[in-house]
Amino acid sequence: MRNTTKWFQGAVSAGIVVVLVVGVLFTLWRRPVSSPTGQENPTPAAQVQAPEQIAGAPPTLTPHIVVVSPLPSPPPFPTPLPTPVVTRMPVAAPPFVAVPAGEANRPYTIFFRDGNLIKTIDTVDSAEKSIVDIRAKTSLFLGSRESSAGLWGAISPDGQRLALVLTDFATADEARQTIHAGPAKGQQFRIYLLDLTTGELRLLVENARRPVWSPDGGRLAFQNTKTWGLGVVDLATGAAEEIFSVEAGSEHQADWFTWSPDGKRMAVVKTWGGIANSGGIWIVEVEKGAEARQIVDMGMNAVLLEWSPDGAEILFLSDRGDRSTPERPTNIWSVNVETGAEQQLTKDISASAGVPVWSPDSKWIAFAGTNMLEAKEYYQYDLWLLSSNGNMLIRLTDDPITDLNPTWTPSGAGLVFNKEEQGLWELDLISGATKQLVPKITSYWFLH
């Protein structure tokens, strides 16, 4: 009995071995033949021959080879552009500009407003002085951006007179209700002249806002709030004429105008109108009465013009141009006055925090803007200097507190600017030092 059991166990074991060997051989026989490179043999299925039949051997099974066409590859998904890795641009080391000897410390006066009260502060003694209380002197209000007046005033080139925009209404709501209501609602805007020596305040021109002095101080440009054209008034005679008109009944307006340094021409933007306060640029001959010449197309959406002191170029801002960011920055452009050749001066730095301003020697452009490639959770607005050809960019500040509206000091040795919620400050471009001039100021201001 024991022998029978051993024989049975041995037979089972031998059977298992035979089955395993046959399985392995069958698997190897079914495997496709591989090429030396490791790829499947490319021999077509029709050329595979069955093994030769051996006499007396059991019939050989011919493998059934199925050729399966490869599935089409799915179309590739667009690869998103990688986020640029940007090294934060450092603040440059002073001095930032060269200033003639003796000019760096030239004093100047700041004119600013406190409600309807106009004040000054002198950099010599830093003492505030009240010039005039408009509401107490007249029944009118000092204009403001909120009341659609734009700039509330402008200082004459000799520093002796102020052109002031006065209005019948005090609030933005009143302005919105009456700005396009016509004469039945009363006079909307008037420009008055304030003599800073005598204190005399007199009416210069009605239906007018946005005063801009000619370089010699003899004329004043303004926007006519009845026709929305560009007017000029002679201060000696009081005679006013419109030198650039827009189509009657259209929404176009003449805006963002600036004088040439010689006072013979003006550059003006013909805006699309409505909320689109941008457009193309025209050159107007002030005295000859020649037809205006367009130098920048309407599609450029130009705003905030600034004629260079040397007379060759006009700066403007535009949302057009090359960029590396999904957001569209406000770029600084220049246009040659004679040829109309345009040049984009900035890219990926949005200069949307004030008018870009030329240095007195036309070599530099100061502006407030944000480097959009550095932005993370918010856009930080700092002060910058840009060479007139756009080849050099200098960072002046790097501060989470927003810096706005830089203006050159009369000597060109410094910049005065608004620091958000911290008033008016000065940056010395020779030493790099900053100091507060006027605390808590938020309105427009100007220097002499």
Architecture overview:
The chain contains three helices and 30 strands. The protein has 448 residues and is mainly beta. It has a domain at 109-238: YVTN repeat-like/Quinoprotein amine dehydrogenase (Methylamine Dehydrogenase, Chain H), CATH 2.130.10. A hairpin with a 5-residue loop joins strand 22 (357-358) and strand 23. 33% of the residues are buried. The model is unreliable at 1-9, 16-22, 24-69 and 181-186 (pLDDT under 50).
- What's the helix count? 3
Intertermini distance: 127 Å
Derived structural class: mainly beta
- C-alpha Rg (nearest Å): 39 Å
Question: Which key phrases capture this entry?
Answer:
five-stranded antiparallel beta sheet; 30 strands; about 450 residues; Methylamine Dehydrogenase, Chain H; mainly beta
Short overview:
The chain is mainly beta and 448 residues long.
Can you lay out the helices and strands and say which pair or pack?
Elements: H1 2-30, E1 109-114, E2 117-122, E3 128-133, H2 134-137, E4 141-142, E5 153-155, E6 161-167, H3 172-178, E7 189-195, E8 201-206, E9 208-213, E10 219-224, E11 230-234, E12 240-244, E13 253-259, E14 265-273, E15 276-285, E16 293-296, E17 303-307, E18 313-318, E19 331-336, E20 342-344, E21 349-350, E22 357-358, E23 364-371, E24 382-387, E25 393-395, E26 403-408, E27 414-419, E28 423-428, E29 434-438, E30 446-447
Antiparallel strand pairs: 1-2, 1-30, 2-3, 4-6, 5-6, 6-7, 7-8, 9-10, 10-11, 11-12, 13-14, 14-15, 15-16, 17-18, 18-19, 19-20, 21-23, 22-23, 23-24, 24-25, 26-27, 27-28, 28-29
